[in-house]
Amino acid sequence: MTENEVSAFLKRYPKVTTIELLISDLNGVLRGKRIERNLLEKVATKGFYLPGSVMSLDATGTTVEEAGLGVNVGDRDQKCCLIPETLAIVPWIEDGSRAQALCTMVDDNDEPFFSDPRQILCNALERFDELNYQVGFAAELEFYLVDIDRDADGRLQPPASSKTGRRMGSCQVYSIDDLNEYDAFIQDVIQTARAQDIPADTVIAEYAPGQFEVNLHHSDNIVRSVDHAILLKRVIRHVAKRHGMEATFMAKPYIEESGNGLHMHLSLMQDGKNILAADNPVNNPTMRHLVAGLLSMADSTQAFMAPNINSYRRLAPGAFAPTAKNWGYDNRTVALRIPSGGKAATRIEHRMAGADANPYLVATALIAGVAEGIRHRMEPPEPVTGNAYDQTHPHVADNLRDALRNMEKDVRVADWFGESFVKVYKTCKWHDLHLFEQQVTQMEYDLLLGYA
């Protein structure tokens, strides 16, 4: 980020007194620090420092020492740099005194830090550019609004509408009435996103009470597109809080309802043309190579798509979350959907990731799968017609343990993500798994305490 960009911003926003410097950890959680206005120009040119161990945190935000970035190396600081064009006002601070900027971490030689998820994506894109194709992304994020107060049994519940006091209690997918009842929240999300130059403009009611989906514009700047997805989650959480609610991107907050997905719409361009476009896209050779490559890496990248124990509760048959390695035209029961619509907009909707996944790592996995499919001219299985849940197809892992083992087996993952990064990631996720398994649940007490 240049001094000119900083000075122009500060001149435009004279009320700004503090700036939040944000960086994504392995889990897609934004970490960082807050600085005073007078330090911003210095930080923009010289950077600032955070412990490298922020890139090896478990789900509780605690350093996983076994990953090797903590006390074993003295818990060393790493330099962080501001990312150009990410400096923006924080609209939910009503007096206009707060701004924010995204950052990225570098090593002692000012080279990309091996465990920074954003740098992992940037490295993958540099390799992908050698193929002379351009990939475009558009993200769809699903989330739930929940009441700050729990129900009588201490469980989550949908919020009551500020307009009617009614609490959503049934699935009204695409309901305009449900959108109207939460119109103030939705409009606030859109306006807040615009204030930060985040291109979000579509919100729909989804498949469960209190569940919504927000869409980002298609972009051929993949890193910026993912930056927007990370920042949009922050916007939604803060706007929900301002409206007296909570927003969650947890993959499966209600076991009886649909889960939250992160759907990535993927296009492929060459010389300004969409090379996936065809009258019958399932027979387009390039489309088939892409699909085959993505499916070939589905097993080994599942731990990025579903990074938490709860992630696998989303992968239930019949719940519009993919459980198998399949694809099809205009079919929401498959993992890779080719949406209907205009020929020029032909694309792949990748439906495997949960909303709890780190978008930088999901995007990297997609880039890797596309590249492998193109390079090796892979061929996919036949596309699915009808309900894929009623058919037999090779399944992806339904638990984190198997997903991590599949990751370890595929040398392509280490090749695209970096061997050192994969070591850190899997160490942290095994730690999360063991942490979860050390808990005794209430159901175990209910079923076994007096009988076992």
From TrEMBL:
The protein, known as: Glutamine synthetase family protein
GO molecular function: ligase activity
Keyword Cytoplasm among record annotations: no
Similarity remark: Belongs to the glutamine synthetase family.
GS catalytic domain: residues covered: 117-452
Protein keywords: Ligase
EC number(s) on file: 6.3.1.-
Pfam families xref list: Gln-synt_C (PF00120)
PROSITE patterns reported for this sequence: GS_CATALYTIC
